[in-house]
Amino acid sequence: EREREQVFRISELGDSVLNMSVSFTLLVLYSALHGWLGATARADSLAGSCGNPAGAAGEVAVNSEGQLVLADCHNTTTLGGLLDQLEQLKSTVQQQQQVLQHQEQLQQLQQHQQQLLQPHDCSAVRGSDLPNHITLNAASTAAVYCDMEHDGGGWTLVAVSSDDGQDTWTWANRFYFSTNTATFGSLNNLNRDFKSPALHEVLFRDILFVHAPSGVWASYHNVSNGSLSFGAFVESYGGFHCYKNAGETGFNMTAGTLTGGAHLCFDTRLYINAMDGEGSQAGCPRGVTGNNDAFGPSWNTDGGSQNDCPFNDPGIQTSLGPCTVGSTSGPGEYCTGGSLTIDGVGFGEALGLNTAPRGTGGNNMRVYVR
Fold first, then answer.
1. Residue 107: burial class (beta carbons within 10 Å; 0-12, 13-18, 19+)
2. Residue 287: CB atoms within 10 Å
3. How far is residue 152's CA from residue 149's CA, in Å, rounded to a whole number?
4. Mean pLDDT (whole number) for 265-274
5. Is pLDDT above 60 for 24?
6. By the 8 A CB rule, do 257 and 245 touch?
7. What is the torsion angle, in degrees rounded to the nearest 10, for the CA atoms of residue 242, residue 245, residue 251 and residue 256?
8. Bigger pLDDT: 49 or 121?
9. What is the pLDDT of residues 212-245, one digit of tens each?
């Protein structure tokens, strides 16, 4: 009865070991059963030399101590011994599993350490403006372009608005600046329309605009409180804002080479989602034919040749692309189409800075956050 219980225990241990790890199956079968099952094969080959009757060696018998054994002339294996072997193997397997678990935990800790060491924006990057890799969130990293030249450096490029003829930053696509997380363009071709995942991932306080080919730039500090990405910041504005109304104001320029000329109404402040104020008209009339609102960043303007401040056609003159025509969307960036041939490119058009051939991408505005 005791031997029968041991056999059951051996079976249970075998199942336990196999359930712990399939990779140890062969080890268990070979090491644990070799002393028992292998004894039969050895006994058969040694039967003659050991002087045992044919077929007698390797049979199961009861020894003098009442134990069930499998024996040949060189080995005697008790079921109790086999049970001990399986117990030892189970312990070995468990130890091996603990080692593997510790190795996995170590790898996870090393990956976490690498993420902690990886910069989360360009303010933690040291070196040149070349593309750098940063950690966007717990699950991904991305290549970004860092500006280390303007206003102390540490700026992360989030977007480029270009007059490259692609019509990417249109009114229909205005939510690229807020809730639409689609990305496009290439870090290897930054004179064309571009959007980085950093626009939705990097938290920021300051924002920087750099115009090409003029090199004129403007930075605005403490635009946000550091808890929002640029996309979430624009989204927080909701709809249009009439900056002619009391209490509506823009962000003062902190540093840069931008000067507020006449076509900027002598104003260098940054505005978000600026409504077309139709210049000297009262307030911001809605539904007026030719109403040209802006979405996202823009600047004050007199409407160009209209010389009528303030906020006259910001969607055409000073936005980064998205523009309305009355209550509908314009057919292209800056409401281009028909007789319109103006590419605002931020403050570029208003200040006469768009000197590159139109449609080539030579006139563009880079947007950075920090």
1. exposed
2. 7
3. 7
4. 96
5. no
6. no
7. 80
8. 121
9. 999 999 999 999 999 999 999 999 998 889 998 8
DSSP structural state of residue 359:
T
Determine how β-strand 76-78 pairs with β-strand 68-71. antiparallel
Among 49-53, 117-121, 136-140, 307-311, the range with the most confident prediction by mean pLDDT is: 307-311
**Strands, E, within the chain: which ranges?**
60-62, 68-71, 76-78, 132-135, 141-144, 146-147, 155-162, 194-195, 207-212, 217-220, 255-256, 271-272, 297-298, 324-325, 328-329, 364-369
Measured in whole angstroms, how far is the alpha carbon of residue 83 from the centre of its chain? 54
CA-to-CA distance for 294 and 292, rounded, in angstroms? 7
pLDDT band at 295 (very low <50, low <70, confident <90, very high): very high
DSSP state string for 81-148: HHHHHHHHHHHHHHHHHHHHHHHHHHHHHHHHHHHHHS-SSGGG--S-SS-EEEE-SSS-EEEE-EE-
What CA–CA distance (Å, rounded) separates 325 from 323? 7
* Other Cβ atoms closer than 10 A to 183: 15
What distance in Å separates the CA atoms of residue 271 and residue 281, rounded to the nearest whole number? 19
Q: Go through the chain and tell me how many residues it has.
A: 370
- Integer Cα distance of 142 and 115 in angstroms: 12
CA gap 351, 336 in Å, rounded: 19
For 27, counting Cβ atoms within 10 Å of its Cβ (0-12 exposed, 13-18 middle, 19+ buried), the class is middle
Short-list 328, 324, 366, 361, CA closest to 343: 361
Peptide bond before residue 285 is cis, with ω within 30 degrees of 0: no
Contact (CB, 8 A) for 241 and 284: no
